[in-house]
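Handout, section 4.2: multi-component inputs.
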Amino acid sequence: MMSSRWTPFLFLAPALAGLLIFRLVPIGVAVGGSLTGVSLMGDLRFVGAENFEYLLTDPQFWSSLKITLFFNVIINPLQLAVAFALAMLVFRPLPGLWLYRTLLVLPMAVSTGISAVLFGLFLDGNLGPLNGFLEWIGVGAQPFHRGQDQALYTLIGIATWKGAGYWMLFLLAGLYSIPSTVYEAATIDGASAWQRFRYVTLPLMRKPMAFVLVADTAINFLFFAPVYILTSGGPGGATSLLMFEAYRSAFTFSDIGRSLAISTILLGIILVIVVLEFRLLRSPEERA
Amino acid sequence: MSTMNIENLRKSFGETEILRGIDLDVGDGEFVALVGPSGCGKSTLLRLIAGLEVATSGRLVIGGRDVTALPPKERDVAMVFQNYALYPHMTVRSNMGFSLKLRGAEKAEIERKVTEAADVLGLDTLLDRYPGQLSGGQRQRVATGRAIVRDPKLFLFDEPLSNLDAKLRVQMRTEIKALHQRLGNTMIYVTHDQIEAMTLADRIVVMHSGRIEQEGAPLDLYDRPANAFVGGFLGSPSMNFIKGHIRGGSVVTDDGSVLPGGEAVGGHEGRTVLWGARPESIVPATEGFSGMIEVVEPTGPDTQLLVRVAGQPLVVLLRSRTPATPGEKITMTVSPSEIHLFDADHGSRIEAKP
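Output:
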C-alpha cells in the first residue's frame, strides 16, 4: 500500500485545480487588472491605485454602492425569512405535501435569464396579466420595474421568487436534523408551540441559517442578469447595482480598469460581510 | 397525592392496535417497571401517560385528576428519554432550569433548585458545560436532573439506561434506585431488560402484544409466573420448557422420558402441559431424570450446562465449579415447589386441583 503525506493532496488535487483555475487565478487577474489602465494610444499600463482614487470621487460609484448595500440589507434577511417560513410550512406531514414542495422548488429549474424575461411579460404595463388583475380589482396598474420607486423592489421580488425555494431546501434539511425527542422533552417541560420555536427550533437552526445567509449574500452581491434584462440599471439609475456598473464600465465604456476596481471592491465587501455574518450566527457553544 | 389510575386504555395507529385495553393502578410513591419484548406497547403506554400520544379510548387519571384529554404541560409529569433529549444549545444549568424558566419562576429560585438537583446527582462541576461536552453517563444524569428540578407528580423513564455500556448501566441503576428512595416520588420505568426491572421496581408489569400479562412484586412474578410467557421472560438464563403429558404424578414427554411432576399435577391426569424449570432450580442428583451434557460454560462463580433431555436442550445453572465434560450423562432433579406447569395450548399456569 503506497501512502505518504502527499496522498491526501493527491485526492484533493482535481478540486484544488478547479478552484485555482476558475476562481483564484481570475481573482488574481482581476485584482491585478484593477491596478492598470488603458492609455490614449491603447496600451495597457500600471496606474497603481488610480482607478480606486477615481472611484472614490465618482458620484455614480457611490450611488451604485448605496443601492447595492440597500438591496442586500433588504433581500438577504427577506430571502432567509421567506425560506424559513416555507420550510416550516412544508416540514410537518400535510396532504399533498409533495406537490407544495415541488411547486416551491420549481423556480430553481427556470434559468435566471428566462425568469427575468417571463417576469418582464408578467409585469408589463400593457400586456401583463398582473396589471390587468390590479386594474380589475381597482388598485390600478403599477409601473413595477419601469418605475423609479418600484424597480428595485420588483427585482428583489423576482430574486426572492427564484431563490426562496432553493434556500428552503437547506433549512428543511436543518429542521429534519433536530431530533423529535428534543421537541417532546420541551413539550413535557411545558413549552408552547411558540416557545418550542423560540427556544428549540431557532437556536438549533443557527448553522443552516448561517450557511444560507452567507451563501445568499455572496450571490446577491453579484446579482446581475435581471438588472441587465429588465431595467438596464434604470430607471434613472435606481437599479444600478455594482455588478451592473462593473459590466457597463467594461463593455459599454471599455474602461476595464474601473470595472475590475469595482469588482475588487465588491469582493472585499462580500468578504467583510460574510465574516460578520458568521460571527453573528455562531452558537453559544462556539463562543464559549 | 401522586397516584395514577389507568382504565381500559386503548391505542391504535390506523388499523394496528398497539394497546388492547390496559388497566393499571399505581400507588403514591411506588416504583413500577413496565417490561416486555420490543413491540409489546410499553413505550406507547408511557408516551400516553406523558401526553405525547393521545389515547384512542379509555381513561387516565393522575393524582385524582382526569388528564386523558390534557396536553403534557398540564399533567405535571417529567420524562427521561432513552437518548436523553437534552437541548444541545443549552448549558447543563439551562437544560435543568428550562421548565422553571417557562413557568416564569424567579431567577434565584431556578438557581437554587438547579443547584440542589445538581448536588444530588454530582453535577455541580458540570453546570456550565454543554451536552456535547459530556459523557454518556453524565448526559443521563443531566436528563434525570432535568426531571428532578420539576418535582413532578410522576417521573417517567423510557429505557433510560439502554444507551450506556454494561458497567455504567449497573452503576446508574443503583443511582436511580437510591434516588427513588431519597425522593419518594412515583416513578414509572420502561425497560426491556428484566434484570433492571427486577432490581429497581416495587412492582413489575409484564406486557406482551399490547396487554398486561401479569403484574406484581418482582419475586412473586419470578416464583409464580401466571403464564409461560412471563415465566420465560423473567430470569436469565430463561426458564426451560419441555412439552409432555401428566401421567401418574409425573410429566411424560413424547419420547417417553419421565420428568418430576411437582406440586401442581394433582387433578390434571392426562393433560398436555409445558413443564417449566428455571436453570438454577435443576440440580444434579443420584435419582431423577437424566440427559447428555452437550456444552459446558464456566462463568467463574457458576457453571452453565447445556443438557439434552428428551431430545430437547435444557439449560442448567450450577452454583458451583462443578467438573463436567461434554458427552457425559448427568442425572438431575428439581425440587417439587420449583416446578412450573403451564397449559400447552394457551400457556396459563396450572395449579393443583384439590
